[in-house]
Amino acid sequence: MAATASPLAAQDVQPRTLSPAPIGSNLVSLSYSFSTGAVLTDKTIPVQDIDGDVHTFIGAYGRAFGLFGLAAKADLVVPFTTGRWSGTLSEVQLDSAVTRTGFGDPVTRFMLFFVGAPALAGPEFVRHRTRTVAAASLRLRVPVGQYDPTKLINIGANRWMLSPRVGVSQAFGRLLAELYGAGWFFGDNPEFLIANVQSQDPMATVQLHFTWIFGPGFWAAASTRQSFGGQLYVNGSPSGEDQTNNRIGVSVTLPISRRQGLKFAVTFGLSTAAGNDYTTFAGGWLASWGGFPAAPMEGG
Asked: Assign residue 49 a region: left if phi > 0, alpha if psi is -120 to 50, beta otherwise?
């Protein structure tokens, strides 16, 4: 479950999402991220050389349960963002800077494990051992965040976003390899710059993670994520390039008790054909309860 979240949908780099949990367990996290660079760049916006400093505070809650005898979990992530952006309005060649503060679009996710993770609780979960886990998930970004159709830069997107994903993880002793493939499908924004219609082609993403597990709740990961497609349109006309880019990152989780942990991460753009060339530093606190009273916290 997410301890940190990227300011951009479809731009997350998250290892250990394929870690099952005992049914009945709960996880809550509070995190902070700082992003600097071309944050929230949208090629449909007539702004050049954009630069931003964005602070995001994130609250998340997740619960594990059983479904058809298989492990499943659901979670909700709610971001609150404050930031300052500067750039050049290309149509009038005027330097400009803006600030925004408010709630972003919440993201909810449902995940079902269909290989290697039966619905177990308590001692059964502790005793269960598997090297291969596979799961499918569905994420939905709900357009209720702050949005002003008269503004060029907004915190919310004012459009629905849906992302199905399939992933598999394979353990090699203490080394865990994970591969995710996902698609993003976008609804239209009929209020882009007041009365224009913004639309977007589907986007595909692939993530690869290598995690070294030092002990219960203590691990470090190196990750990469490549996106393809996602051409943007305004009133049916193409605007800018495909949203093809690559991000890499490292993260580490440290246990501070049997039920609490700290997570730290940094991600940055490796290649950015269409904006999104920014760096994010993040840290968060995680706590779990339920499931089994004496077991340490696992997963991300």
From this structure: left
> pLDDT tens across 49-77, in order?
788 999 999 999 999 999 999 999 999 99
Instruction: Give residue-wise pLDDT tens across range 91-125.
Output: 555 567 889 999 999 999 999 999 999 999 888 98
pTM for this model (two decimals): 0.88
What is residue 90's predicted lDDT score, i.e. its pLDDT?
59
> Could you give the domains of the chain?
26-289 (2.40.128.130)
233-245: b or e for each residue (b if 16 or more CB lie within 10 Å)? bbeeeebbebbbb
Q: Kind of pairing, strands 161-172 and 70-89? A: unpaired
